[in-house]
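INFO  loader      accepted 1 record
INFO  loader      residues=275
INFO  predictor   begin
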Amino acid sequence: MAGVDAFDIARKGVTLEELVPSQNMTDPQMDGTEIPQYKQDVGSVFKIGNYVSLPIKDIDTIASVVQTTGKAVMVWFYFNRDEWSDVPTIKYPDLNLYAGDTSRHSVTAVDFALYQGKKALIIEDSWGQFFGLNGQRVITEDFFRARNWFAAYPINFAFDDQTQPQPQPVPVKPKYAFTKPLVFIPWDNAKNQPANVALHESQKADVIALQNILKYEGRFPSNVTSTGYFGSITAKAVYTFQVAHKVAPLSELDSLRGRRVGEKTIKVLNEIYSL
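INFO  predictor   done
INFO  writer      dumping tokens
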């Protein structure tokens, strides 16, 4: 099974572990379990409408989605079994994703942190609470960059409209006049805030307008609230905007990867969206 297969199943609905226990069961045992209709009905509440694929091996984007949406992100890894410890480490640098003895495994990233001074994700493992750190593991940036091969998160759960406010759609073409450059701001994990709060506040209104425009063009996730924080998700969306509108030579755009909205980008934005 691959990531897209899991989300195809989730579109039909997924019931709760406490209703249909699967701990310590083999695949044939789970496949042979009869699920009463009422338990299937519960599963229909947890079906999704769609999902958003994310760039692989990009730990900043995963952390940003977890922080911004409050949702877990499904991430897939490949490894040799003896690498998959409480804090997985690379023991076989030349391991092939498609080798017969390679394990391919899906988990959910639920939080982010610093581990020994480096970026890391906290993941919930499907192996249960008796494995890892009470069911969780710490995925370092080094391991993530080496062994991640799929990442995505669900949107439009069946229960969303009933239990939580949805981001407002952008039904009409946005209108806004940009007057100053906007720049990417790293996230301070230790303080759980933008690394430069003053700069964030000074450009927040402009970035919200920018994010709404990027949503309108389909470059920014429509289910992610326009917060005004210029992080990794916004930078990637800006980069696709700059490339699509040929704001500057590709070599110039590649050097910044969307981390700055400068004079050339502002000119194009205002030509299309200015008041």
